[in-house]
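Entry type: protein chain
Record version: 2
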Amino acid sequence: MNQFIDTHAHLYSRKFDPDRKEMVERALAAGVTRLYLPNIDAESIEGMLALEANFPNNCFAMMGLHPSHVQPETYERELAVVEDWLGRRRWAGVGETGIDLYWDKTTLAIQQIAFARQIEWAKDLDLPVIIHSRESNEECLALVQAGQNGRLRGIFHCFSGTVEQAKRMVGLGFYLGIGGTLTYSKSELPAVLKEIPLEHIVLETDAPYLPPVPHRGKRNESAFVYHVAEKLAEVKNLPLEEIARVTTANALKIFEPVK
């Protein structure tokens, strides 16, 4: 069986409360054996850690503050929680962080502050940073470039951008996280990814969001990363086995680099 890694899944979401254990077991049965859990804010930590504890060989927690939860009244307090937790144990990565200009452009300045701070923590701790860049590729690229000192690495999660932006991200030492949007009929990703070597791509679901075809309109889950891999194999004109092998190796380079 091909082995896959879901590099980004919110499996602690309340949308999985009715069948979380069974959902993870479906992923494992489908060959998706490593599931990386990005944090959102202080309230998501407890559920994330509980899931990691239940599946310690398969679920790996990350610590960060999502840009949509960066608010003027609370972001300093939320960042203090993240910093405290980062100092308590080893995490798989820092994130989900970044900038989101889809939901709220008025908080750009404090989103930039929060993102830059989390970039510094990632470098200090030698951890990958998981970047949310919805309608903010240029803003995120600017901060990554400013912070790159040769040690900064990670993933531009749910990549959506131009070939030129993709090449800049790769040039800065980052990988492109590709999920269900690749399978959508109007997606521009296939044309972009034809120009990017497979060695710079990882798979993700962003579950429970952005389900791939043929599951659109339903709750996404980690087992569905298989459909993303199938579509990527078609785009790249490569065997599915090669997609599985290379994207898995890429993810392990990010999360478990050889010291």
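Comment: The first strand starts at residue 4 and ends at 6.
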